[in-house]
């Protein structure tokens, strides 16, 4: 069961969000996605960090963008 303290491998994160392992490793190396490195050199990523990174992308559009402008054109 996944919870906020769950740690995932780059492959697990990639499968969860629909991208490749190498993309996840690149985000880690660029400092975009925090991770810890095990003594064997593997990365582990907290599920809470994945959720924090993805939250802006999953947020609904602001209400003002959905309202029609005068003349019937959406923002």
What does this structure look like?
The termini are far apart. This protein is mostly helical and 75 residues long. It is built from 4 helices and 3 strands. The protein has a single domain, classed as Multidrug-efflux Transporter Regulator, Chain: A, Domain 2 (Orthogonal Bundle). The mean pLDDT is 82. It has helices spanning 10-17, 21-29, 47-58, 63-66; strands spanning 7-8, 36-37, 43-46. The relative contact order is 0.18.
What characteristics describe this protein?
3-stranded antiparallel β-sheet; 3 strands; Multidrug-efflux Transporter Regulator, Chain: A, Domain 2; 75 residues; mainly alpha; 4 helices
Question: TL;DR?
Answer:
The chain is mainly alpha-helical and 75 residues long. It has one domain: Orthogonal Bundle (Multidrug-efflux Transporter Regulator, Chain: A, Domain 2), CATH 1.10.1660.10. Helix content is 44%, strand content 11%.
Number of helices: 4
What is the ordering of alpha helices and beta strands? EHHEEHH
Q: Rounded to an integer, what's the Rg over CA atoms? A: 17 Å
- The helix content, as a percent range, equals 40-55%
**Total strands:** 3
- So, CATH architecture? Orthogonal Bundle
Strand order of the largest sheet: 1-3-2
According to CATH, what is the class? Answer: Mainly Alpha
* Average pLDDT, all residues: 82
Globally, the shape reads globular
Distance between the termini: 41 Å
Strand content: 5-15%
What structural class should be given to the helix and strand makeup?
mainly alpha
- From the 3D structure, determine the CATH topology: Multidrug-efflux Transporter Regulator, Chain: A, Domain 2
């Amino acid at each position: 069961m996944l919870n906020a303290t769950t740690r995932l491998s780059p492959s697990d994160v990639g499968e969860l969000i629909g991208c490749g392992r190498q993309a996840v490793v690149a985000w880690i190396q660029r400092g975009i996605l925090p991770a810890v490195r095990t003594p064997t050199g593997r990365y582990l990523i907290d599920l809470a960090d994945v959720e924090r990174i993805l939250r802006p992308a999953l947020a609904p559009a602001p209400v003002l963008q959905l309202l029609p402008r005068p003349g019937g054109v959406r923002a």
